[in-house]
Amino acid sequence: MSIILETKDVHLSYGKKEALHGVNLDFEDNSITALIGPSGCGKSTFLRCLNRMNDLIPNTTITGSFQFHEREIYASTIDLVELRKQIGMVFQQPNPFPFSVYENVTYGLKLTGHSDRKFLDEQVERALKQAAVWDEVKDNLNKSAMSFSGGQQQRICIARLLAVQPDIILLDEPTSALDPISSAQIETTLLELKKEYCIIIVTHNLQQASRIADRTAFMLNGNLVEYDNTSKMFTNPEKQDTSDYLNGKFG
Ligand SMILES: Nc1ncnc2c1ncn2[C@@H]1O[C@H](COP(=O)(O)OP(=O)(O)OP(=O)(O)O)[C@@H](O)[C@H]1O
Known about the structure:
Number of helices: 10
Helix content: 25-40%
Bound molecules: adenosine-5'-triphosphate
CATH topology: Rossmann fold
Low-confidence stretches: none
CATH architecture: 3-Layer(aba) Sandwich
Number of strands: 10
Shape: globular
Strand content: 25-35%
Strand order of the largest sheet: 6-7-8-3-9-10
CATH superfamily: P-loop containing nucleotide triphosphate hydrolases
Mean pLDDT: 96
Structural class: alpha/beta
Order of helices and strands: EEEHEEHEHHHHEHEHEEHH
Distance between the termini: 32 Å
Number of domains: 1
């Protein structure tokens, strides 16, 4: 496996308050990495750095290096639309646009100038199949995406992102608003998707991290405490803080 994204010494401040204190992490292609840690430790903040979503928050200062395919994500020459196409994000609450399933999935493709109906049809089918929701929506592609269940909406959002063929998929607690069956379907989908993508997931659910993640990063108070193979970290962590967190002593 190869490293597709590497961060070094990442500091982020909201105004005067520093929320990340020098985070070094690397992410492999064709794998799932979980970011875990108690509420407020900086998981979402770090995740948002990876496709520059924090740029949208006023008074945010970010330093450090983010090498993606040997390019610096924070270089002034980076095209943000292109970056967010390559590094897409799925959020906690499913957020389909108030359009049909078809229009949701073709949205990014149309933005980048694709209009050929046959091509769009093929991409819609491919993306919805990859997101494991094709069978459930294929007869209703013109129906509003918002009329489907939460779990189906989340998989439609994943399909919307897959349509533009990203390299990295960022997910911020993608199943915390879903029922157990829908969550399990998303986990199965992610395990399939990792064959083709680098997946980085923030989760509060330790069982979920242990089920699906190849590697897990444990964060605490804006610091990276430990980063290791998930099975190693969950059975034999190096640091006492990691052990205490995994054993439910805090968090
Ligand atoms: N937009 C913001 N403005 C100011 N401070 C923020 C902002 N977003 C997050 N913070 C602060 O940064 C710190 C890290 O928050 P962050 O949401 O990244 O943590 P988290 O580990 O993802 O938490 P949770 O698991 O509760 O989502 C917290 O102290 C939080 O209050």
